[in-house]
Design brief:
60% of the residues lie in helices and 8% in strands. The protein is α+β, with helices and mostly antiparallel strands.
Length: 403
């Protein structure tokens, strides 16, 4: 066998002189790590990596716990300094290739069987070491993601509740791609399951939005189990796509039970207002048992007007609909009849079909309503009064709740 039979001790003492860099250094490339050799102690780590391979080639041992922890720490530091995992893998594999012919065990191997056993031991050590480097890199990435999500959630909370001064909010908003001086619209989605940052539906929607629109003036976050999307009002496509994805996120991801879009407003206060309008639309849709998944705050503006004077609304409901409690079966069936008739445009055949009644039975109910209340759905003004009273009853929870 040509060459001196190097021992591991000799290899350790001469590792720095024997091992050139595995990859050439491009001086024109920005160095991701300030103050060290570009990878969180790369030269120091590669020296220990060389010792590990030398020992593995001689003894066939697996990496020790302290060596694996050093690999993890190296991967973590490198991730914090912006090095990609593929760069670290390339660095280690390149160093392994350059070292191979100089490893003591490989150098002393006299037969093909010995070379195979030595190669298997070295490659096994490389596999385990690279897995540890990758584990450390992923650990740092997960920590960075959790920190980013926490900061984003804190920013959204402060923004939507006004818990920070405008200067601080504007400065933090730039980091998340928002220009608070502009006009924004807020959309909110609620599902049967509560949304959080790791929910599969949230991840898919975020991936789809970023993939299609990039980091435009849009922010996606979760709050109190809801999914919130803040978008510049010029990006109507973003909101439309968000609502569509929330309703149908794809296989394996549950869709939203309801979505609501607030109106567009300017400034940080406008974002808060749009958010509150979206929440109000969701609440109204549930209280009124409205059909459909998608709600728009601008289409529900009449209901806050109706609720502004609850006393007057209660008086309207009691005066107009109170007599329906005298009907056989109570007021509920007749209230449902009025609701369905309004939804079907007062086409009796369609209303009867939706109610599962005959047209004759529907006509009897409408006549019973006119007799008890004195209001006829056939008269436009009286029909408007009946509809307003029915909506008021649903908002106030009557007749289940006392007025």
């Amino acid at each position: 066998m040509v060459g001196p039979p190097y021992r591991a001790s000799y290899f350790r003492s001469h590792a720095s002189s024997l091992l050139p860099y595995a990859v050439p250094v491009d001086e024109s490339r920005p160095r991701p790590c300030g103050g060290d050799d570009g990878g969180g102690g790369t030269e120091e780590f590669l020296g220990r990596y060389a010792e590990l391979l030398a020992d593995a080639s001689e003894t066939g041992r697996r990496p020790r716990r302290d060596e694996l922890e050093a690999c993890r720490a190296f991967g973590e530091r490198a991730a914090e300094r912006g090095l990609a995992l593929r760069e670290l893998v390339g660095l280690c594999l390149g160093r392994t290739r350059r070292l191979w012919g100089s490893l003591p065990g490989v150098d002393r191997a006299g037969t093909a069987a010995e070379r195979a056993r030595t190669g298997d031991a070295v490659l096994g050590a490389v596999e385990i070491a690279l897995a540890a480097v990758g584990e450390g890199h992923e650990r740092a990435q997960r920590l960075a993601v959790r920190q980013e999500e926490g900061e984003r959630r804190e920013f959204v909370d402060d923004l939507l509740h006004g818990r920070s001064d405008m200067g601080s909010l504007a400065e933090r908003a730039q980091r998340f791609g928002l220009r608070l001086a502009g006009v924004h619209t807020v959309a909110v989605a609620v599902g049967e399951e509560k949304y959080d940052d790791v929910h599969r539906t949230v991840r898919r929607i975020e991936r789809e939005l970023l993939g299609r629109f990039g980091p435009r003036d849009v922010l996606l976050s979760t709050k109190e189990g809801r999914l919130v999307c803040i978008a510049a009002s010029g990006d109507r496509d973003v909101l439309e796509h968000f609502v569509s994805l929330a309703e149908s996120p794809g296989a394996g991801c549950p869709g939203a039970r309801r979505t609501a879009v607030g109106r567009e407003h300017a400034g940080a206060g406008g974002i808060v207002r749009s958010y509150e309008e979206a929440l109000g639309a969701l609440e109204l849709a549930d209280r009124l048992a409205l059909d459909g998944v998608r709600m728009n705050a601008s289409e529900l503006l009449v209901f806050p007007v109706l609720l502004r004077d609850r006393g007057a609304m209660a008086d309207l409901v009691g005066t107009v609909l109170g007599p329906l409690t005298k009907a056989r079966g109570g007021a509920e069936p007749l209230l449902e009849t009025l609701t369905v008739c309004a939804a079907s445009g007062y086409v009796n055949a369609e209303a009867a079909r939706r109610l599962g009644l005959s047209v004759r039975t529907l006509s009897y109910r409408l006549e019973r309503i006119r007799t008890l209340t004195g209001y006829s759905p056939a008269d436009p003004l009286q029909r408007f009064t009946l509809e307003a009273a029915v909506m008021g009853a649903r908002l106030l929870g009557w007749p289940a709740k006392e007025l």
